[in-house]
Amino acid sequence: MKFLIINGPNLNMLGIREKNIYGSETYEGLLDFIREVCKKEDIQADFFQSNHEGAIVDEIQRAYGLYDGIVINPAAYTHTSVAILDALKAVSIPACEVHLSNIYEREEFRHHSFISAACLKTFYGMGFEGYREAILCLKDYCLSR
Ligand code: DQA
């Protein structure tokens, strides 16, 4: 089983940005956490991070036919990007959405996700653990198909 893990804008700044919201662990720390989960679950994982909407769309298109699942934290594009929603729908690869913080307890503009409509499930407010839950959810889904 092969999953693509996509992280959107400013997630490369983990450990520096708004530590009161996102914690003090770095982006590299997040990748190490996901690598451990994937090793345990016998899943191959590739990682992609970009601060650019079009680059994320290109990466989702590249994924077509190559991956069994996509875990995506679209970051700020969650709340603005019809293009990322359309890309996920276009490739129809099973996807789960993750947010480190609880977007529903933050500013109102973070309460709506354009991306959820193309995802099996959204995990939020669980920190790094949300990525584990998303990977397990996708694995179960793939095994039950
Ligand atoms: C985020 C939540 C978004 O609202 C925000 O723009 C991010 C990160 C999260 O992981 O909690 O950059 O997706």
Distance between the termini: 13 Å
Please describe the biggest sheet, giving its number of strands, its sense, and whether it closes into a barrel: 5 strands, parallel
CATH topology: Rossmann fold
**CATH level 1 class label:** Alpha Beta
CATH homologous superfamily (4th level) name: Dehydroquinase, class II
- Low-pLDDT windows of residues: none
Strand order of the largest sheet: 2-1-3-4-5
Compute the number of helices. Answer: 5
Question: What report would you give on this structure?
Answer:
The protein has a 5-stranded parallel β-sheet with strand order 2-1-3-4-5, sandwiched between helices. The chain has one domain: Rossmann fold, CATH 3.40.50.9100. The mean pLDDT is 98. It has helices spanning 19-22, 27-40, 53-63, 82-91, 129-143; strands at 2-7, 44-49, 69-73, 95-99, 121-124. With 145 residues, it is of the alpha/beta class. 37% of the residues lie in helices and 18% in strands. The structure holds 1,3,4-trihydroxy-5-OXO-cyclohexanecarboxylic acid (DQA). 1,3,4-trihydroxy-5-OXO-cyclohexanecarboxylic acid (DQA) binds at residues 10, 73, 75-76, 78, 99-101, 103, 110.
